[in-house]
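Subgroup meeting minutes
Present: P.N., E.W., G.H.
Scribe: E.W.

1. P.N. recapped why we're keeping a running log of single-chain structure predictions: easier to compare across weeks, and new members can see raw inputs and outputs side by side.
2. G.H. added today's entry (650 aa).
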Amino acid sequence: MDSMDVCGRDVRIISVNTVVVGAGAAALNAADQLHARGVTDIALVCEDIGSSTSRNAGSDKQTYYKLSLSGGEGDSVREMAQTLFDGQCVDGDIALAEAANSAACFLRLCELGVPFPVNRYGEYVGYKTDHDPRRRATSAGPLTSRLMVEALERSVKAKNIPIYSGMQAVSILTRGGKAIGLLCLDLGGLARGEVSYAAFNCVNIVWATGGPAGLYADTAYPEGQHGATGIALEAGARGRNLTEWQYGLASISPRWNVSGTYMQVLPRFVSTDADGNDEREFLDEFFDSRGALLDCVFLKGYQWPFDVCKAAGGSSLIDMLVYVERCMKGRRVFLDFTRNAGGGEADFGALGEEARGYLKKAGALFGTPVDRLIHMNAPAYEFYRNRGVDLKKEPLEIALCAQHNNGGLAVDCWWQTDVEGLFAAGEAAATHGVYRPGGSALNAGQVGSMRAARYIAARRNGQPDSAGRFAQAAREQMERVVRTGNMALERADNAAQLLAEAQRDMSRAGAAIREAAAIAALANTTKRRLFDLERDAGCSERTLPQFFRYRDALIGQCVYLSAMADYIAKGGKSRGSALYYDAAGMRPHAALDERFRFVLDNGDLGRMVQEVKYRDGECAFEWRPVRPLPDDDDFFENVWRGFRDNGNIY
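Output recorded in log:
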């Protein structure tokens, strides 16, 4: 460990082979897998070891997707790969890698103590999830990913892998298209009243920072999750499928998906003005009967993500109506579990066969929504009560929220980006397309981090430069970043306010409901904000982290909005979790505004991948065909010979 002075700030230099950036399941697995393969000269770097999405997020029954490991129903690696590939805009080699390694990564978690259910014979039983033709899904409950994180953290700590918590990544240091290090703001130093930095001098970086949660105001991501995709795009990493997100209804305090039982108990949807007055049940005017309304609400439990295919006459109409109230009318939206829709007794006889049959089988044809919730899923009620919201007494504020980015940084089948030495794993990596089976993100994070670790161990297990050579190579870039932070400290403390404003704009124009003119206008505004950043944005020492997050978010918003505009220019139509306005299209409901007219995508662009390179404030786009599923020689003797040759597979 050495140090240097950069623009009057102390910068510690820490030299290791590999820096893993992140605190979630993908980051912890990368560190664990590297150590298991003999790469022990590593450091896990994060803002707060307890703040990752996978530690703090969940759902009614959080799913892990993997190859079928029970029953008599046939399955194969190739079939699972085909399912992932069929999600559109997915490269076949990545789909095959995720399928082929799903069982190994899943069983590794089981060995570490994650309590996935088995029957008396040891079969890991499964169920069908969305976009799943088999029964590949399994769950350890609503906090499956937290159980994964806790098990992986125990393994990492048992190996004494250094964890640098309290480090905020602010720049990936590069030279000649290669990653040579990482510059971090030392949050511990800020807590002691000093502005200082740490620079990690390394051969490899595994970028497992999660999705770019900081782009949006209305988000289901936990409070501590910000993401850092903008920094990686700035470093030269190519973006892929950035237009493809998953949005859904979620509470905003605390942030949590209101899927599954929360919808199936048929809560009342109400909106108020900004002060909580003028309460009204706003869904009524869009349905012919109370029974039709409640059937639609019930289906949101199964069909939680906003899906444009379910916009016309389907459950996603609910999402759009919530968006109208909150983002177009400026009202607040709540779920009320204390009373039935209409305020009286529930008319279960008005329900359709599916909803009524489900509630009857659950023994829940009685009482208020909260009565039914406690009866059917008491932990779902306790979750909010333990976080200060008693659904017996008060409503739950919700919004249509960003929940998962299916795109991200472009990677190859070893999860390396086009910046040499920079790998991406977890949600930061673009391994999904338009649709994905529920739970496939947890599998992708484990497979990707394992694949990156294997490649590093086989091909990139060398020593970093000396601290002196590193300091010389990285000084100019470090000076640029540190100087930007110093200048911000001399201006008014407004970065947090400016970030919140930019996030609100993104939730209105760049989320599930998209329109070309609004996207173009916000893209121009965002470019101006980024260009004027060093003139307009300021902070105190306490809010310096917010300044750097604002900068990262602006870069991300600039590239993501440009990707949406490019998709529209390419002739792209509504698909997945995004409705694009089209004047020639249909309205999902006669009472909805003209701005909701849309045309469904015909699937042609599903065979293409959109990639983007960001440089000096500008975006260069390229469209290419998806890489097909590989048709490799799987004759055992040939594979064995290549494997014995120590590296042919790489």
